[in-house]
Each structure stands twice: as C-alpha cells, then as structure tokens.
Write a structure and sequence with these properties.
2 copies of one chain form a homodimer. Helix content of chain A is 48%, strand content 11%. By secondary structure, the first copy, chain A, is α/β, with parallel strands linked by helices.
Chain lengths: 344, 344
Amino acid sequence: MPAALSDAAFLRACRRERAAYTPVWFMRQAGRSLPEYLTARGDTAMLQACLRTDLVVELTMQPVRRYGVDAAILFSDIVLPLHAAGLELDIVSGVGPVVASPVRTSADVDRIPSLSPEQVAPVTDAVRALVAELGATPLIGFAGAPFTLASYLIEGGPSRDHARTKALMYGDEATWHALAGRLAEVASTYLRLQVEAGASAVQLFDSWAGALSAEDYARYVLPHSARVLGSVPADVPKIHFGVGTGELLELMGEAGADVVGVDWRVPLDEAARRVGPGRALQGNLDPAVVFAPWPVVAERVRDVLRRGKAAEGHVFNLGHGVFPDTDPDVLARVVDVVHEESRG
Amino acid sequence: MPAALSDAAFLRACRRERAAYTPVWFMRQAGRSLPEYLTARGDTAMLQACLRTDLVVELTMQPVRRYGVDAAILFSDIVLPLHAAGLELDIVSGVGPVVASPVRTSADVDRIPSLSPEQVAPVTDAVRALVAELGATPLIGFAGAPFTLASYLIEGGPSRDHARTKALMYGDEATWHALAGRLAEVASTYLRLQVEAGASAVQLFDSWAGALSAEDYARYVLPHSARVLGSVPADVPKIHFGVGTGELLELMGEAGADVVGVDWRVPLDEAARRVGPGRALQGNLDPAVVFAPWPVVAERVRDVLRRGKAAEGHVFNLGHGVFPDTDPDVLARVVDVVHEESRG
C-alpha cells in the first residue's frame, strides 16, 4: 500500500492513531440522494448495476468528487454476492431484497451456493480500477453479516419483526447455525476478494442485529460474524455496524471489530464506555438531522465531534444511511465542518 | 372499587405489593390471533369496530375468557380519539393508520380538534359494561403518547425512520411543542374518560419513542408524556411502554409511570437497575418466542420470571404485541406456566 494511502486520516483513525483531522464518510453516500447518481444509473436494475464495472466505478466515485469525503465505499448491495452466486433474489424498488423461495429448512440451506471469484469478477475489476483512481483515498469494501442476510432469506424480504428468523433460531438451532455458517462463508469469500483487489478497509453490515437481545446475539450470531471478521487480514481495519445496537456494542466489538459503528441512539462518549479500550468508533449523526436548518445541523455535528473525543479513534459518519431526499449540499457542508472543527 | 378488584394480582403488582402470583396479560391479546375475534369482527372496519359498544365489549372479553389473563385491555386503537374528534384518518389493513392531510405546519396543528366526551360515548359505554362484566378482573384503559401519535400525523402513516417527525422537532421546535401539546391534551382527556367510566389502570403507548436518543426524548417528548401521565388520578396505576427503549427506561419512569414496560432487548434484571426504585416493570418475552417448540417457550418464560424478581413489582407480558399468526393455545400455556411457576 502506498505510504500516502496508508497514512490517510480514515485509516489512521481506524487504527486509533492520531490523525490531522477527524475523517468522515457517509453510509449510502453513493446513492439516490445524488442527482448525478440518478442520471448515471438511469433505469438499470440495482443488481445489474452492481455487476457493471463501469457503473460501480462511477457511482462509487461520485460522492468522493462531490463531498471530498475521506473514504469511498464500494457501490454495491449486501445481497449482491448471494445473487452473483446464483441464489434467486431481486431488489425491488421501494421494497428491498425479495427472495424467490424463502429459506426455512435444512434442505433449503443446502441450496445456498458458495461464491466463486469469477462470479463477482465485475466487482473485483471495479475495486482494482477504483483503487487506481482513488490514489490516497481509501476504498471500503463491505459485506452483509450472517444475521441480516439470513433474515432476508428466511422472511423472504425486509421485515420489521424478524419473527420467522427468530422462530428458526429458537426452534431449530442446528438449521440456524448451518444457514448462518453458509452465509458467513459467502461473506468471508466476498470480503477476501475485495481486499485482495485492493480495498483498504471493510465494513460488516449487520443492519438488523439490534432486533436481538445481547444473550441471543452472543449465542446465535456472534460466532458467525466473528468468523467473517476473523477471515479478513489483521492489517485491514474492520468496521462492524448495526442499527439499534445499544445493548450489543460491546459484543460487536468483541466479534473482532477494529471500529464499532454506532447509530444515533447512544452518544459516542457512552458508546466508548460500552465498547471499552482497543477499538475506535464510527458515527453517529442522526440522518434526519440534515433536514433541520443549518445552525441546528452544525451544532449537532459539533456535539458528535465533542463526544467522539472520548473514543480512541473516531470516524465521523451518520448513524444510518443517507435518506434519499437528503440535500447533497448539506452533506457537503457537514464534511467541511467536520474537517474545520477537528483540525488542531 | 370493590375490594376483590382492588386486591387483584395485576393491581397489586402495579402498586409493588406482594401478589399471590405474577399477573400476566398480553399486548394485543384482543386481536387477529384469535379465531373468535375474526368471526366477531367480520368485515367491520377497525375504527368502526372501536366505536361499536357491543363489539368493543365482546372483543375485550374474548382473551379474558380464553386465556384467563389477569387483566383485560380495552379493544381500541391509539388513533381512535383523533378519529372520534373529527380528524380525517383511517386504519388501512396491512398498513396501519393513514392520515388524509399530514400535519407539518402551525396552521395544520390548529386543525387538530379537542376531544369531547360525547364523541367517545360508545367507548365509555363499553368501559362501563366491561367493568360490570369483568368483576374482579381489572380493565386497562389506554392512549397513544404524543410522540407516537405525532409521528403518524406528520409522516402521514407508519414510518420506519420518523425522519419528517424529527425534521419538525429539530427544525421548528415551537410547532413541534404545539403539536405534542395538543396531542397530550387529547390523550389526557381520553384517559380521564376511561378512568371515570371505571378502568382500573392505564397504559400510555409510546410505541416509537425508541427512535430517539435520550437527550432528544428528554427535550422534545418527556414533558408532554409527563403531562398525560400526570393528568391521571394518583391511585390509578400508569404503565408506560415503548419498543427499543433501552436508552429511555429511566426517563420513561421519571415521566410519571408506576410501571415501565420493557421490550425483549433488555433483560428485566438490567431494566430494574436502569429504572431504579419505586417502579414496577412489565414484560418482556419476545413475541417471536411463541413460534418455538414448547420446551423452549417454557424455559424462556421461566427466565423472564426469574429476572423479573429483581423488580419491585412484575407484570408478565410480551415485549411487544401478539403477532397475528400466534397460536392461541401457546399463549394459554404461557399463562398457566406464569401462574404455576410464580405461586409460592
């Protein structure tokens, strides 16, 4: 890795080293909130777009150009590797991932294919092209964590309650672990391929893990997510994120994260206490704050920065993904404030 | 109040007095999970059903007859008083409450009517009939809390993110407080009428409060919910419930609750620590657990009972409403286990 890249503020913060300023990027920074995204993607279906190297490169670069964020995140979706491996699913606009045949039995689990490198060659090609174009700006690769992927597969689509997922966990633990194990394998392979192609950090998205109590998380989920994070080389920073995970922050760190992502519900100083020493934090401006008048936004950004000082390293981000109707100019100003305020 | 009613296990537990056994009821016990409910309601629209005295009585009684729960909860909906007061809204099957004209400006707030007693006369008639029929079994009245009601009005319907609600809070605090104040007034009136008609306890549902950080909850929500709870006579137990409120449990108690409802994410012994002395707890079996094989359900029930001993009073309940596809026989067995295990 070139020295300028290795020395990037984002990677320094992930490694809990002093950085010249607090680095910032936004979950879903590449997406519908950008007019240039809508223009470039046109009517290309989501999963199709994720497998077109030129589009992945362009959509990943757009927010870097516009906002001057300190990291790029690969334009993709957590279900992409399952789709690429041959599992029948689609991303339906306005709904989310929809699975043709929900996975609920051990025979269903056996149908989940492994991922081979050539199936995601358009993605790894994009990673290589991006790393060349990004220069000293790190590229974050990512994968969906076993619990969140399993929930889509078991429920057949997005779910508020994850009731069938829990029913399988509680009712047929062997099948649950077989399924989570398969998904851990797919996620590990997908992250390994992204890192080999040049991604400098990875984020494991366990978006819905917050639906579980700490005890259930520790028993049913942590071992599988730990396997995924453990499969990534030690020198590649690993971010571990979910929504509503106030009760899980310590465990999500223990799963093998260098950086624990925090949503807006827990202030970063309190999150630092829960996560303990040896890990950095990422977060945690409420993505709805950007709809407020600018002075309110600026004050909230400063508050996140102040509280973030309690962490051994702090990567500024939203507490969840950018909302589609976010004004990109507000995000651009957020980046500026984060950089200005955090500079010595 | 007759002595046998005043001495009911449910009311004793709410008052943190020793009870012969742990009382149990289920949020949404009157509803779609019961075949007799589907038969009785037929194709009557939800809000229409809530204003038919005979149906309210029958649907409220059904779970008491079937399960032998220790409290009845009025069959109704949190948006009923707004509908009864003349606000244009509907409950759409499979969606939830849908508001004709979302409330987003101070002029919109002025359109929110007050509630007068005759508008909910069918409900208070039902309360009187129920109290007579229930005898020594307490009837719980309820209302929606200002934040949760406001979210439906501002978003125009159910929302995962409550982004517009937060945008109004953060961006136009005066309008937010005016709206929440109006809704607090409606909720106070509605609870007062139910108590005057004979309800022995009330529950304030702030289902979506868990979307907020503690700081935002304290600033934007707590004063309004406190006003509602403070308007209920001191000798009527007040339960205060929301989902995903791990960060808010202490504040939800401080808002004036005798009993703090806890979802499944925080074990009751930990919840007791957070809530502190002087309050009872209600909860908190994960409603998805009922889909597991019976030995798993029984063990989980026992675990909730064990941890509930750390509270000064414990009302057994689910951590959220009964799922529509729940097997009523499992809930009946849960009631039996709670009673058997907790007796001397």
